[in-house]
Design goal:
The complex is a heterodimer of chains A (about 260) and B (about 250).
Chain A lengths: L1 E12 L2 E12 L3 E5 L6 H8 L6 E6 L2 E2 L3 H4 E4 L11 H5 L1 H5 L4 H8 L21 H13 L5 E5 L7 H18 L3 E5 L2 H7 L2 E5 L4 E8 L10 H19 L11
Helix pairs in contact in A: 6-7, 8-9
Chain B lengths: L1 H15 L10 H10 L1 H35 L1 H16 L2 H12 L3 H25 L3 H10 L3 H12 L1 H24 L6 H10 L3 H29 L1 H6 L11
The chains are: A alpha/beta (about 260), B mainly alpha (about 250).
Chain lengths: ~260, ~250
Amino acid sequence: MTRLELRHVRKAFGGLDVLADISLSVGAGEFVSILGPSGAGKSTLFQLVTGAERGQGGMFFDGAPLDDYGRHFAFMPQRDALMPWRRILDNATLGLEVQGLGRKAARMRVAPLFAEFGLAGFERHFPAQLSGGMRQRAALLRTVVQERDMLLLDEPFGALDALTRAVMQRWLEQMWRHHRWTALLITHDVREAVFLSDRIYVLSARPARVVREFSVALPRPRDSTGVAGRRAGTLEAEILDVLLNLQPSKGHDHD
Amino acid sequence: MSVGFLLVAWELYANHSGIKPTILPAPSRVFEQAVLNREALIDNAIPTIRATLIGFACSLGAAFVLSMLVDFFQPLRRALFPVFIVSQTLPLVAIAPLVVLWFGFGLTPKIMLVALVTFFPMLVALVQGYEATEAEIGQMLRVMGAGRWRVFMLARLPSALPYFFAGLRISITYAVVGAIFAEYAGAAKGLGIYMLNAKNNFRPDLVLAAVGVSAGLTLVLFGLTVLLQRLAMPWERDAGRQIAGKGPRR
C-alpha cells in the first residue's frame, strides 16, 4: 500500500529552480532513501512535504491530497536539534507535549523506550553531556515516540564521525527491522542508502529531478561481509557511477 | 591583587607627596571616614538601591514585552528601533537635569533615567537571543504541530537566555551609574547627591567613600546576576562535565 506519493513536484525560490520534477512513492513499512549531491534541494523536498514551503505538483498521503501535514510525519532534522536546556527525558517527550499530552503522561510513554535506544540511565542528563551517537539516538527516540504515520529523516548521521556513523547505521537497521517504520531518508552517503533502504531514488544536481530508482533486493539483516556484502558493493558502485555521471542540468545554462 | 597594589601605591603617594588630604585623601583616610559616616552612607545608599532596582525592573519588563512584540511582528522592529537608538545617543548629562526638572526630586525621574540607559541593551539582547534559535528546532516544532506561540515558549525564549544574561550583566552596571547620575542632577537623598554635597564641602574623602559604596553595590548586583544565571541555566553549568562513556551503560 502506498502511503506517501509525490507526482511531478516542482519548486522554485525566486526564479531559482530547486526541484524540477520529483515523483516518488513510499509504501507502508518501506524504508526509502533519497540520494543526491549536496545542495540538490533534498531538504527542500522535506520542507514541501511538511508544509513549511509550498510548491507545485501533487502530494498525496494514503491516496488523499496531502494537507494536514502535522498529522502524518515525524521529522528528524539534520543535526540532532536537541534542546540544550531540556534533559534527555524532556527532549524525548517534546513531540508528545506539543500534541497536548501532559508532562507526566508523556514521560511515562517515553521512559520504557530508553533501554532499547541505549539511553537507559541518561534520562536526567543534558544533551551537552552525551556523545554524538547518543544524541542522535535521543533525537530518533524523540521522533518515533510521536507515533506518526511516517518518519522523515534528514541526513540524521551527517554530523557524526565515520565510525560512529557506521555503528549508528547498523543500530538503525536493526531498530527498523523490529519496528518496520515507514521511513523516508535523505542522504548523500551511498553506502548508508544501500545499507538501510528497500528502495533508493537518485536525484540530479539542482534543479533536482529523479534520474534513477534502485531497488535494494538484499536480505535483512543487512551484512557488509560475504556474498551479500559483495552484492551491496556492486550496487554501491553502480549508484555512485550514476551520481558521478550526472549531466549538468539545463537550469544552469543561463549563468 | 592589582587593586591592592594600586591602593598601596596611592596610600604611599598621598602620605609622602605633601598634597593636602582635602585634595587627595589616602585610602586609609577614605576608609576611616566611610566607617565614621556609615550611617549617612547607608541612609543615602538605600534610595539609590531602590531607584536602581525599581528602574531596572521597569526597564526589564518593558524590554521583555517589546521584544516579544517585535519578535511576533517584524515590521514593528523597523518602526521602533530607530527611536530606541536615538534614545541611546542622548547625553545623560543634559537629560538628567531636564528629567528632574520635569518630574521633581522624587523617585520617578530616577526610575526613568535608569530605565532609559538599560532598556535598549536589554531589548537588543532579547531580540538577538530569539533570533539565535536553531532554525531546525523551529522547523521540527512546526512539523510536530506547534503554533507560533508554542515555538516561542518552547524554543525561542529559552534560546535567548544566554543573551539575556549577557545583557543583564552589562545593564546592571549601567543601572547604578544611571541612578547616581539622576541623583546628582537633583535629589533629596541618595549616593549621587551625597557625592555632590561632599564635593561642595571640600570632602573628597567622602566623595570617594560614596564611590566605594556604589562600586561595591554594582559588584554585588553583578554577582547576583551571575548567581541567577547559574540557577536559571543548569545545563550550562553541567555542560563541562562530559560524562558520556563513564556513566551507566548497558
